[in-house]
């Protein structure tokens, strides 16, 4: 992904201003949705003039692109932590499951994700960006599952893809459940999600023996 902005003498200031705009945009998208939040509204929330904001982002679509890139960088950081932790992949992923549940039940953060998904249905560029992010997330997950520390390292590509897609679907669906059932808690979800995830991260033929 690339960004077009005017040249500035101080790269640190540019980055600070871009972050300021992205934070303001995220706040506006949460409150008003993608289409309800115009560049003027984002500029006001960021404490900038409407003209000033274009020094850092040429359009609202460019802001969405940067938000998706931020999410990707956060995802890469999480996978990097998984890869650097000692021990088997099953233990590492199950030990971090509560963090994933927290993130996917955060209605403030996820409402932006949902809005971007809706935008992707009518905006090919946003759809392409989200598809790229999903592809990279699945690739990183696949690398974990075929590593020497994984019980699934010898499984076929088709089976790994099936398991990864089911895992991602379960996690992504938590936001919708939280929206429809606000009383839902992380602890309640983990009662069923932890054994379900354990099943998906183990060879089916040895699952009963291990459990």
What does this structure look like?
InterPro entries: Homeodomain-like_sf, HTH_TetR. GO terms for molecular function: DNA binding. Residues 38-57 bind DNA. Residues 15-75 form the HTH tetR-type domain. Pfam families: TetR_N. The chain is an all-alpha fold. It has 2 domains: 1-58, Homeodomain-like (Arc Repressor Mutant, subunit A, Orthogonal Bundle), CATH 1.10.10; 60-210, Tetracycline Repressor, domain 2, CATH 1.10.357. Helix content is 76%, strand content 0%. It has helices at residues 11-36, 39-46, 50-53, 60-84, 89-95, 97-104, 107-120, 124-145, 157-180, 186-200, 204-210. It is elongated, with a radius of gyration of 20 Å.
Short description:
With 211 residues, this protein is mainly alpha-helical. 76% of the residues lie in helices and 0% in strands.
Number of strands: 0
Largest sheet: none
**What are the low-pLDDT stretches, counting only 5+ consecutive residues below 50?**
1-8, 207-211
Average pLDDT over all residues? 88
CATH topology description of the largest domain: Tetracycline Repressor, domain 2
Helix content: over 70%
What is the percentage of strand-forming residues? under 5%
Topology:
Blueprint: H1 11-36, H2 39-46, H3 50-53, H4 60-84, H5 89-95, H6 97-104, H7 107-120, H8 124-145, H9 157-180, H10 186-200, H11 204-210
Helix pairs in contact: 1-2, 1-7, 4-8, 6-10, 7-8, 8-9
GO molecular function: DNA binding
Pfam family, one: TetR_N
InterPro entries: Homeodomain-like_sf, HTH_TetR
């Amino acid at each position: 992904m690339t960004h077009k902005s005017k040249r500035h003498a101080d790269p640190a200031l540019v980055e600070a201003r871009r972050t300021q705009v992205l934070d303001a945009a995220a706040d506006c998208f949460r409150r008003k949705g993608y289409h309800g939040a115009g560049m003027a509204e984002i500029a006001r929330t960021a404490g900038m003039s409407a003209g000033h904001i274009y020094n850092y982002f040429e359009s609202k679509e460019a802001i969405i692109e940067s938000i998706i890139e931020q999410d990707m960088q956060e995802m890469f950081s999480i996978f990097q932590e998984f890869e650097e932790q000692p021990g088997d992949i099953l233990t590492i992923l199950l030990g971090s499951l509560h963090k994933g549940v927290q993130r996917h039940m955060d209605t403030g953060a996820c409402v932006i994700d949902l809005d971007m998904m809706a935008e992707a249905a009518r905006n090919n560029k946003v759809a392409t960006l989200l598809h790229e992010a999903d592809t990279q997330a699945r690739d990183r997950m696949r690398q974990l599952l075929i590593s020497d520390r994984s019980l699934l390292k010898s499984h076929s590509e088709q089976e790994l893809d099936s398991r990864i897609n089911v895992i991602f679907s379960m996690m992504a669906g938590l936001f919708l459940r939280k929206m429809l059932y606000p009383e839902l808690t992380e602890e309640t979800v983990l009662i069923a999600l932890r054994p379900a995830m354990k099943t998906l991260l183990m060879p089916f033929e040895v699952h009963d023996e291990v459990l």
